[in-house]
Amino acid sequence: MSAGDESGRGTAGPATGLGAALPAAGRAAESDPTADPEPRLAAGPLTPGQVVLHREILDGRVWLSYPVRVVAHEPDLLAVYLAHDTRLSFGEGEFSWGPHGWSTVADRWRSPGVLQLQRPGEAYAVWAFRDPATDELSGWYVNFQDPYRITAEGVDTLDHELDLWLPADGGPYRWKDVEAFEERARSGGFTPEQAAAVRAEAAGLAARIDRGDTWWAERWTHWRPAAQWTAPPPPA
Fold first, then answer.
1. Percent of the chain residues past pLDDT 70, beyond the cut
2. Which CATH number covers residue 204?
3. For the chain, which end, N or C, has fewer CB atoms within 10 Å of the first or last residue's CB respectively?
4. Is 92 known to be catalytic?
5. Does residue 151 surpass a pLDDT of 50?
């Protein structure tokens, strides 16, 4: 996801615009810069209201982190809330993908607060954006990423660059950051197998949306955070 990029600008159309959707392949740990080789798993479910760190792991180190509040943690769902003005922290030193893209924009989340919905084993998260003027849902931002992992340090993933915007008014979805994703693939940021897996995940989700299968909409369209859920400090 690009910082502050929750608008509907992007490329309309089906997943064929991403190239061939090839079968997903396993990652080679020896050459995978996105791998976090031995995460320490947290014990037990997260609790509603708990503050945890969302972390993007690149080269085995934290590339980006920020605190979120747990909305729900169920066997088939993790829902967290990123509040407006939450502080963003960026990893120091050199990374194979360079500095995180948000690091040159802001050190806080400047957009309205967003609900982030993720299901185990799926390589995307759905972010619910609301219009700051009306507090009505403006749309769903699908962020393709590593399947989340809950560890003792936080909720770990890694953004895959590619995104999809689905307007709440029923308009057509739009692909976003396709060129950024393809450039990262061309430059070796993903192996060919990893890039194919991202395209396959995107194509599969687009097909589900085309069939009207948006599992997140019925339960979460009208969700609102508690009034006291302002930007939290990082967990102790």
1. 82
2. 2.40.380.10
3. C
4. no
5. yes
